[in-house]
OPA family glycerol-3-phosphate transporter-like MFS transporter (Nonomuraea fuscirosea), 429 residues
Amino acid sequence: MKPFYVRELSVYPVGRRRILLLAVAVLASLVANFETTLATILPLLMTDLGMSLTVYGQLAALSVLVGGLSAGFGGILSDRWGRVAILVPTLTVTAACNFLLATVDSVAGLFWVRCLMLFIEGAGITITASLVRDFSPRMGRAQAFAFWTWGPVGAAFLASFIAGFTLPLFGNAWQSQAIIMGVVSLSMCAVIIWKIAEPSGALRAQVMEAEQELAVEGEAGHGRVRELFKHPHLWAHVLGNTGWQVLYWTFTIFGQTILATAFGMDAATANRVVALGIVLNALAVVIVGRASDRLRLRKPFTAVGTVLTAAALAYFISLIGPGVSTGHVTAVYALLFLFMGVAYVPWMANFSENAEDVESRLQGSALGLWGMVVRVMIVVMLIVSPRVVEAGGWQLWLSVALAGQVVFLVSMVAFKGRWRAARPQGVEV
């Protein structure tokens, strides 16, 4: 028997029903990212626990590694047992763990709570991506993934917004934010439990080019995960994009720190610059996703976005130092986030489609493998980047991130998919 909250569809939803289920999957992505957010209270937490940045880096690295292992296994299990059966408990239990976080009074306690939270959350995030794929035919896949990326973006914005207004009300006690995050997350989980559904295994196995009310009965069986390992172009996707993600996660984790230490911005100004970049990125992914879907092209958008990102990053590195105006830095930083948005969403659609063509029943496993490898990279980054910055400043580490962009660009040679729009039938060459 399936849990009470599992609603399995044997007919592919269309129209408003599909859009609603896609919106619930995006909401689940936001919750999964929001309920583990620590950036808004990290300075207060470090002061209260007497924790250095180096110690936090080591703690974060180990807990992210735990989350990476969970992401890999969570994706595989979601293909076998269903998305919702695993997603709902992971979201709910992680939300409740925020109340446990509020009781932490030592570095060791923080470490164990974060490991627990990220182990549960790791599976949840990859499953939300799988659900987005399940409810997005290929003709709308890039735009659907664009909205999925609003999960981490929206989570960062929501956490900062809440902290900005409520921290002063509670005497800047970081525990207040943990409790508020728990309450807000559980409230959103209630909405998800009420509305969420998923296609049956047989329906998930279908490759949907366009929206249609397809009915499928019976079982599809389970694909073999090792089938994914036999295809070099899938490894090119995973490893190449992991190189691309070095820059994204550098800015996600250290963005304000880079702006403050390399350009002398105060904390408030740095946060405003980062916020502008996030807004432009959120707009870019939707616009580019729609264009990519209309043209049914993925690789040209990814290539152009990556080249522009690399060029903007090289210029950003050259600016590091005294005497550069805040407006100048803000413009370049904003363009970096804009160009990253151009590259990312078409790539996600391309990877999803390439994995789908190999074995449509293993979409969760493919996304889980990618999520696991990216998290291993984050672990390495958290350990290595402080030492690199110590030795050569942020210029040196951002040069490493620039090399990651080049690796991603080269890996695109192996991706499957067209570089040009298909010619209309009946047109002579």
Summary: The mean pLDDT is 85. Strands lie at 8-9, 198-199.
